Inverse folding.
């Protein structure tokens, strides 16, 4: 069997009513009709939306076929035991040219009960944002179900949600149950559990492409919402130059930030997981074997490093490189669909 190598996948582009043009103009996605492209699914194992390899001898194979063949060598033994042939993370770039619906995702328990699926915990890394861009995350005051329903029923939902100004480099962790929406003018990377379950709460009274209001999931959302109030919803983190700096660590994924201007030697002997690189800025060469052709990663690209590649060398090709480094570090409560 041929050796595994860093894998690139063909982006799955999604037109959205709120989408914009920056997935093409900023992240270089090959979108013909690029004015309403809202999402680029970089790595997906969602049913009917399987990522297909774009590089090397495995080109044209989809991600579940790869896991069937390579199993733990690709995703890590413990990951394969828990998830089987379903890749456990859905990796996206999102460009919002308008408000997304105010929404919430169910947790594992509720999603398993209602949909036979995992829940959806996610995080956002802001790549680009216009001046005074804002998003919605959580509530701006103490809340409970009765109070929420009172505001919602009287059309005053906007009065109780928390608006946050954002700028490039901001990170927001969105555990399942946290109400959220992005506002216009924001381009971001999203890392989440493999789930496409969204409960739409409010859609700004707009009409869909068919001229009708989009479906809301009012009743489903009520029991999915986490009503807890927090003083701050933005994730604080510190970046150490030329080192891996932790941003978010949860049972579903760990995300670190790599900001480097000289070669980085990364060793993953301790890790029983794949690693995903998402390039936020600049470009670098990924070296993984002295006898193998290196793989380049540039802004807007995503590369999956198979679990059996334990020594990686990242060589900057530009003055400053920023990459998100994602993997699964510890077992959580995700539903095993394998």
């Amino acid at each position: 069997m041929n050796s595994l190598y860093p894998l690139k996948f063909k982006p799955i582009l999604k037109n959205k009513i709120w989408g914009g043009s920056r997935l093409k103009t900023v992240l270089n996605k090959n979108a013909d009709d690029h004015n309403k492209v809202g999402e680029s699914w970089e790595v997906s194992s969602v049913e009917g939306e399987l990522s297909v390899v774009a590089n090397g001898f495995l080109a044209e194979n989809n991600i579940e076929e790869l896991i069937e063949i390579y199993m733990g060598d690709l995703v890590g033994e413990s990951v394969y035991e828990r998830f089987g042939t379903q890749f456990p993370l859905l990796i996206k770039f999102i460009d919002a040219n308008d408000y997304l619906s105010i929404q919430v995702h169910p947790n594992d328990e509720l999603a398993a009960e209602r949909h036979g699926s995992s829940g959806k915990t996610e995080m956002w890394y802001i790549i680009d944002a216009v001046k005074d861009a804002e998003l919605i995350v959580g509530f701006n005051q103490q809340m409970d179900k009765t109070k929420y329903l009172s505001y919602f029923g009287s059309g005053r939902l906007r009065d109780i949600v928390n608006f946050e100004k954002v700028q490039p480099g901001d990170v927001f962790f969105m555990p399942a149950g946290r109400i959220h929406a992005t506002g216009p003018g924001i381009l971001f990377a999203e890392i989440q559990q493999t789930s496409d379950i969204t409960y739409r709460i409010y859609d700004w009274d707009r009409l869909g492409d068919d001229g009708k209001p989009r479906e809301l999931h009012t009743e489903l959302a009520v029991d999915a919402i986490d009503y807890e109030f927090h003083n701050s919803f933005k994730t604080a983190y510190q970046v150490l130059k030329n080192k891996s700096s932790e941003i978010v660590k949860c049972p579903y994924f760990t995300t670190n930030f790599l900001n480097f201007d000289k070669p980085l030697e990364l060793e993953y002997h301790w890790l029983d997981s794949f690693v995903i690189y998402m390039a936020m800025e600049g470009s670098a060469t990924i070296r993984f074997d002295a006898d193998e052709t290196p793989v380049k990663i540039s802004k807007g690209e995503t590369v999956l490093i198979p679990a059996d590649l334990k020594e990686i060398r990242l060589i900057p090709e530009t003055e400053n490189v920023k990459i998100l480094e994602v993997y699964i570090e510890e077992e959580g409560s995700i539903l095993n669909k394998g």
Summary: Helices lie at 22-25, 63-70, 72-75, 77-83, 108-115, 145-153, 218-222. Residues 332-338 have pLDDT under 50 and may be disordered. The first helix runs from residue 22 to 25. The chain has two domains: 12-222, 244-327.
